[in-house]
Structures are given as structure tokens and as C-alpha cells.
Design brief:
heterodimer; A: 118 residues; mainly alpha; B: mainly alpha; 2 domains; 0% strand
């Protein structure tokens, strides 16, 4: 229980450090860095290595953006299991729909309410 | 690192490149990494807290609780962006605020707010995904090909 919180902090922090090193040492732009992490997450998800990390670290693995890549692959594969090849298309957003919908809906609502700052 | 690029430049330009490079401020890699670690870790810790609440009180299990957790964090991040807190935090923590899913929400919300002066359809609607777009595009394309490969391997293995 307490363990899981500690692992979430450490693993989540470690993934952020990887991102920071990609920015500072490899001189990537933030966009290139997040894309790299997402594709890495998708590859790890395809190899079945990301789920164990989520089991181990909970939100430490599911909150960083790399889990977005994993969730896309997971949606595609689990739907493909049921419906075959077509499932890769129909299932790809299945798991991530909550995150993307929330970002779009609340991002839009925010633009109604808030004014740009400085 | 840019030897190939330098070959195309004239000697004067090369001299300038060396001059500029020597004066470019050194990036405090260790300090940045520590900040990223603590802020990123804290965001994940908060995520874990929500996950625990969803599991304990709302009947989600370990595998399904990730979804509402991410959505909750996104909503919080959008509000923090609107009030201008998130950008301050991002200036301090760098990768620690970009890597968690809250950074994704921040890019969507800040682009939406920034472009509202250009109108709600072309400004907000069109520019909202300007920064978040690459993540969605490359995520979906890579997931598609990985999905195809996995399905193909399974079909071959099943024969």
C-alpha cells in the first residue's frame, strides 16, 4: 500500500528525468521528447513490457505520457483479439478515450473562461 | 555533433558558430534532473492518490483505475493552466511537468486559451492541437503498426 506510493514517486520521477535528459543532453525540443517517449511506450506496450511496470509502479507508470503509447497499443490489441484485423482500427482509442476527451472538452471550456496571461 | 553541418559553412560562419557555442549558457543538467525528478514524482504520487481513491471508493480495479485517474489529473492541469500556475511550475521543473499527462493537458489548454482572440472556430478549434498534435499523431501511427505486427505474428503463429 505505502510501497505503491513510494514506487509511483520513484518510477514517475525517473521517467521525468529521462525526459529532462533528452531535453538537456540530447538537445531535443519538448515536442520531439514527448514523441520519443510516446513511441517508446508504444513499443514497450507491444512487447508486453509496459503492463508489468504499471502493476509495479501504478500511477508512476500510467501518468507519464509514455503510458499514452502503451494504452493506444493495448486498445488496438485487445479489440483485435475480439474482432481480428479490423480491431486495430476500431480499438486504438478505446483505452485513451477518457484522457483525450477530457483534454479536448476542458481545454475548450477553459478557452471560454480564461483569458491569456502575460 | 554538427560536423556535417559545419562543412557547408564558410570559415567566417564556422568561426561564429564556435564563438556562439562558447558563449551559450551551460545547462545545469543535474539541477534540472533533480527538479524534474521531484516535481514529476510528486505529480505521479498525486495520481497514485487518486487511483487509490478510485479503487477503494468507486469500485475500479488496478487495471481500469488508470483511466479516471488520468482524466482527473487532466482536469486539474487545465484549471492550473487557466489560472497561470502551471506555466510557473513548468519553468521550474521542465521535464517534470512536460512528461506527465498533465503536460499534455497543459499544451492543449494553453493553445486553446492563447488563440481565442482569433475566434472560436479557427482560433480555438484549429490551434488547440498545435502542440499536442505530434504526440497524438506519432502515438496512433506507431500503435497502428505495432498492432498490425502483433496481429500478423499471432496469425502466423496460429497457423
Amino acid at each position: 500500500m505505502v510501497q505503491q506510493f513510494v514506487f509511483a514517486f520513484i518510477v514517475g520521477g525517473a521517467i521525468c528525468v529521462i525526459g529532462q535528459l533528452l531535453l538537456d543532453v540530447f538537445r531535443l525540443t519538448p515536442a520531439h521528447m514527448t514523441v520519443t517517449l510516446v513511441v517508446t511506450g508504444a513499443v514497450l506496450g507491444g512487447l508486453g513490457l509496459y503492463e508489468p511496470l504499471i502493476k509495479f509502479a501504478g500511477a508512476g507508470a500510467s501518468v507519464p505520457i509514455s503510458s499514452f503509447g502503451n494504452a493506444l497499443v493495448k486498445g488496438a490489441l485487445s479489440e483485435a483479439e475480439r474482432t481480428g484485423f479490423i480491431g486495430v482500427f476500431t480499438g486504438i482509442f478505446e483505452v485513451t478515450s477518457a484522457g483525450i476527451s477530457a483534454a479536448i472538452i476542458f481545454g475548450f471550456l477553459a478557452s471560454l473562461v480564461f483569458k491569456p496571461k502575460g | 555533433m554538427s560536423n556535417k553541418k559545419n562543412k557547408k559553412l564558410s570559415p567566417v560562419q564556422q568561426e561564429y558558430q564556435a564563438f556562439a557555442k562558447a558563449r551559450e549558457p551551460k545547462r545545469p543538467v543535474l539541477k534540472n534532473s533533480l527538479r524534474a525528478f521531484f516535481v514529476g514524482g510528486t505529480i505521479c504520487f498525486i495520481g497514485q492518490l487518486f487511483q487509490w481513491i478510485y479503487i477503494t471508493y468507486f469500485g475500479f480495479n488496478e487495471m481500469t483505475a488508470g483511466n479516471p485517474t488520468v482524466a482527473t489529473l487532466i482536469i486539474i492541469a487545465v484549471f492550473m493552466t487557466g489560472f497561470g500556475f502551471y506555466d510557473h511550475l513548468a519553468q521550474y521543473a521542465g521535464g517534470g511537468t512536460i512528461v506527465p499527462v498533465t503536460g499534455f493537458a497543459n499544451t492543449v489548454a494553453s493553445a486553446a486559451i492563447e488563440h481565442r482572440t482569433e475566434g472560436y472556430v479557427l482560433g480555438v478549434g484549429g490551434n488547440m492541437y498545435k502542440i499536442a498534435g505530434p504526440v497524438i499523431t506519432y502515438g496512433v501511427v506507431s500503435a497502428f503498426f505495432i498492432g498490425l505486427i502483433a496481429v500478423a505474428l499471432k496469425a502466423l503463429g496460429g497457423m
